[in-house]
Amino acid sequence: MATEHSRRRVAAAALLAFASLLVAPVAVSAQTATPAPTPRHVPSSEPWWVPVAFTGRPVIAVRASGDTIAVDVAGVGQQRSTDGGRTWQRYFERHCLVIAPDPHWRVIDGRVAHVNDDGSASVDPGSPSMPAGGRPQPADQRGLIAAPAALPGVVVAVAVDGVAWRRGVDGHWARALLLLPQGIGSGAPRITSLVAFDTQPLSAAVYLGTDGYSVLASNDDSPPSRVPGDDWFRAGPGLPDHVLALYADPVNQAVYAGTDDGLWVHHLRAIPAPPVYADAALRWRWLGIGLVTLVASAIAVAGLLRAVR
Amino acid sequence: MPQACRSGRPRPSGIYRAVIDTPAPAAAAPAPSTTARRGAAAGLAAVAVGLGLALLVPRIFSDPVGVDPYDVRLAAVSLLLLGAALALRRLRDSRAVLIAVASITAPFCLWSAAPRVLGIVWPGLGGNERFAWAGVAQTVLTGAFVALALWVLPAERRPNLRLGRFGLGAIAVAILGSAVLIGLALAVPATWLGRLGLPLVALQRDMPWVAPGNVLQALAQELEFRGLLMGSLERVAPLWAANLGQAVFFGLAHIAVQYEGPAGPFVPVTIGVGFVLGWITQRTNSLWPAIVIHAVGDVAVAAAVLPGLYGY
């Protein structure tokens, strides 16, 4: 039977061997992961959302194509810029800004319908019940429905119950996102807009604007088993919580957000990824880390021995 | 009649009475000496200095997003310290707390590395499955440290793990505590926590593997903090001090989480949570309520908070 002394020696030897394995620069781990491709170069110093104009005023509708941006501002009326938002002029469209509907999917008779090449539409019988007219705001003619061109057949829609549903490539509909209450005694925030890049396959992400939770985006940089609508994350750092309208502009590769505090823009970019180091830099890094680990341990042991002397 | 009364020890009053009424087998051991207390305190201080240096100094030559394997550094320092304590007789009074600290850092390191390693040796395994198996690995290694503590420590220094009791009172506390935790989480404004919505399709896909992984993580962490660490400190310090010590360490351990994440107020919150879980453990004299509450909290965070913050 092992004595206490021999047990300790065995345990100490095993631990020291294990620790030395950990310190050895053998593992080259996730640091070498390659970041996702960037759609277009965006300076890394640019914030995720950038204010464009009308700070302090609610922007209730937005439409953009390149340098031409049209907005509807509460208390001001319709405005248009032809220089990317630097200057604005009064502008008028009858009733409200006209937003083109999705080229392939519409809301017809309270259901989601597919628009065929000949212009006819066929209602998807499995789709959820959609709000009549599907208009969260007067300017939005599209309804709360979005279908990224990057993934044909995939649709995300907000039904009458306020739940976001998604249609997979197999045609099956499922409840995708249920917003939770904002706090005790208050309900879930209103979903105000739902957009995707539906004419050009720039991104498979779907952007969901809310009057309380800013913008949520579906994950589009994941394994093939994941489709838009499955995974959602908060994509609104810096953006006001109350988002009233969204618009995806393929020309600028940007998403515009009308909020209760002005107009904002987000330029498409890859989700930040860890930097990549060349082999030599990685080896030096590991060497430095190993050295620090050993020095830290030596200081701790020395202090411990001194304390119990 | 409770064993503590039979042994003739004074019967304390207040919130800590229950645990004294039903002590672990070693509780009747003689009162710890000043040397033992000093050894445990010095062990904790030394490991805190070592881990702090190893965690923070590389930031001088590192990058702000922290791609360094900080968990490897923490595990290496704590294992080296434990190795020294086991090898040097002079450090015998520090062994119990150093085993406890190593039981925190080394399994965390293994948990962190396991999905990557599994991806190499078993390429067909999905991310959720890897997460669950990482929980298994963490729990098994934590169990190995429990075995190490029982193997190398003398009876009077062995931690009071409190795994043998899960009575009706403990079950009621587990249910009530879980309900209070969920209620508090729902009461806090949603944007503070990132509790925005439930990704229903993703949960149906992920939870069969992620939930067991979270439960195993909770089990491992309770064994580490409220079992090994608090149980060891109780041998040489008053119950309240032992609880406070493990709670502070529990909170500081989450600096490692903050190091790579956006969780600013996470450390003080986890100190509070750690103290409450420790108090429940001492009050019920059972580790199981803390395990249940911790597991419920972790599953709730995985279901409703992490998706909003990270999109998975």
Distance between the termini of chain B: 53 Å
Q: How can the largest sheet of chain B be summarized?
A: none
Structural class label of chain A: alpha+beta
* CATH-scheme architecture of the largest domain in chain A: 6 Propeller
The protein's oligomeric status is heterodimer
Average pLDDT of chain A, rounded to a whole number, is 79
Sequence of secondary-structure elements of chain A:
HEEEEEEEEEEEEEEEEEEEH
Question: Please, could you describe this protein's structure?
Answer:
- The complex is a heterodimer of chains A (about 300) and B (about 300).
- With about 300 residues, chain A is of the alpha+beta class.
- Chain A is built from 2 helices and 19 strands.
- Chain A has helices spanning about 5-25, 280-305, and strands spanning about 50-55, 60-65, 70-75, 75-80, 90, 105-110, 110-115, 120-125, 145, 155-160, 165, 175-180, 190-195, 205-210, 215-220, 230-235, 245-250, 255-260, 260-265.
- Chain B has one domain (about 5-310).
- In chain B, about 70% of the residues lie in helices and about 0% in strands.
- Chain B is built from 13 helices and 1 strand; from the N terminus they run ααααααααβααααα.
- The longest helix of chain B is centred in the C-terminal third of the chain and has 34 residues, at about 200-235.
- Residues about 1-25 and about 260-265 of chain B have low confidence and may be disordered.
- At the A-B interface, helix 1, strand 12, strand 16 and helix 2 of A face helix 3, helix 4, helix 5, helix 6 and strand 1 of B.
- Strand 12 (about 175-180) of chain A pairs antiparallel with strand 1 of chain B, so a sheet runs across the interface.
